[in-house]
Amino acid sequence: MLENVSIFIIGLVASLLTGLVEPIGGLIGIGMVSIARPILPWGRAFAAGAMLFVVSDKIIPESHRKGFEKPATFGVIVGFVLMMFLDVVLG
């Protein structure tokens, strides 16, 4: 019985210690964002470029296989137009 209680206490302490790290990481993240605010647009542009590369290199060729060239191209065009429309309407 005493062994079960000690295992429970060890688990409780371990979970408390892992939970205490999260606010510290949040404060570090807030500090880094406030310091790096001028380069955030460049980071977002890099992430968008990486996503465009993945889509153009992997997803579009895969969708054009087996004779689905026209529906796949139409889907990409409709998706892009819808995305631009939502960007303008929602600001």
- Mean pLDDT figure: 84
How far apart lie the N and C ends?
Answer: 62 Å
**How many extended strands?**
0
Oligomer: single chain
Helix-strand topology string: HHH
Beta-strand content estimate? under 5%
- Strand pairing plus helix content: what structural class? mainly alpha
Q: Unreliable segments (pLDDT under 50, ≥5 consecutive)? A: none
Evaluate the radius of gyration: 24 Å
* Shape annotation: elongated
Give a short account of the largest sheet. none
Query: What is the count of DSSP helices, taking H or I runs of 4+ residues?
Result: 3
Helix content estimate: over 70%
List key phrases describing it.
91 residues, mainly alpha, 88% helix
Commentary on this structure:
By secondary structure, this protein is an all-alpha fold. Helices cover 88% and strands 0% of the residues. The chain contains 3 helices and no strands. It has helices at residues 2-35, 40-63, 69-90. The longest helix has 34 residues, at 2-35. The termini are far apart.
Topology, pairings included?
Elements: H1 2-35, H2 40-63, H3 69-90
Write a brief caption for the model:
The protein has 91 residues and is mainly α.
